[in-house]
Design goal:
5 strands; single chain; alpha+beta; two-stranded antiparallel ribbon; about 10% strand
Length: about 260
């Protein structure tokens, strides 16, 4: 497989070229080594991007919203969401949103760059990223600041499930809120859109399952308003309603 150039990142974390990363879960016999990249989001230094200034999700990290002005903007965004009851899960299958981490979901950032969505996300959000020897795609180790727990994770591919990619708006939630009637192409976009994806602690992601904000919020309280904003951004982009309890909880996290 040929690969396109990787992101390079300057001192302030600016992304300058297209990410290239390949499927972690489907590649066997990977060994640490290869090239390494520069630093990604550094939450302690305030480098993680605010969701309000990252509307397409292509900047690394998920920064906390602390100012009253930002929280007011967050509430305005959430308040514009349409409310609807959650429908049945009948007919839902993960494959209805395409196979996991496909690189061919047109219409979303980082699509068709020669590497799968999972590795794109690891490269985008990780620090000190290292690749499989001879590859500029397959990530074998990195350091990740997990916004959901507020902890750093020293990740290696040998224990791949320690980091999972969270769908901020879960796919089955989207199915129940109207995605069951979408085209296949639109469902594939939602499943692979970096706006709807964050690499986080595997155990935390597993605990979330397909919950909306009324049922699950990140354990790290400082990030909950930002999480609500990201959930709202995805819902707005894809024309998804949210449940009344979810909307109420999202507003509450941002000071309503």
């Amino acid at each position: 497989m040929s690969h396109r150039p990787l992101f390079t990142r300057g001192k302030r974390g600016a992304l300058t070229v297209t990410v290239a990363v390949a499927l972690v879960a489907g590649c066997d016999g990977l060994e640490p080594g290869g090239s390494s990249s520069g630093s990604g989001p550094d939450a302690a230094a305030g480098q993680a991007a605010s969701p309000l200034t990252n509307p397409d999700g292509t900047k690394p990290g998920l920064g906390a919203l602390t100012s009253e002005a930002d929280k007011a903007d967050a509430r305005k965004l959430v308040d514009e969401l349409t409310v609807k009851g959650r429908g049945p899960k009948t007919g839902y299958e993960r494959d209805k949103f395409g196979y996991a981490w496909m690189d061919t979901a047109d219409g979303v950032p980082l699509a068709r760059n020669g590497c799968d969505t999972r590795n794109d996300l690891l490269k985008l959000h990780g620090r000190d990223v290292r690749f499989r020897t001879g590859s500029d795609c397959v990530v074998v180790s990195m350091n990740l600041y997990d916004p959901y727990t507020g902890k750093d994770i020293a990740w290696k591919k040998a224990k791949a499930t320690e980091v999972q990619i969270d769908h901020v708006v879960p796919l089955s939630y989207a199915w129940q809120m109207g995605a069951s009637r979408w085209s296949k192409e639109k469902r594939q976009q939602l499943a692979n859109d970096v706006l709807n994806l964050l690499p986080v602690s595997g155990s935390t992601n597993s605990a979330k399952r397909d919950s909306g904000p009324a049922s699950w919020l990140p354990p790290n309280k400082s990030i909950r308003c930002s999480y609500a904003v990201r959930f709202a951004q995805v819902a707005e982009k894809y024309g998804l309603p949210v449940t009344a309890p979810d909307k109420s909880m999202m507003l509450k996290q941002c000071g309503s």
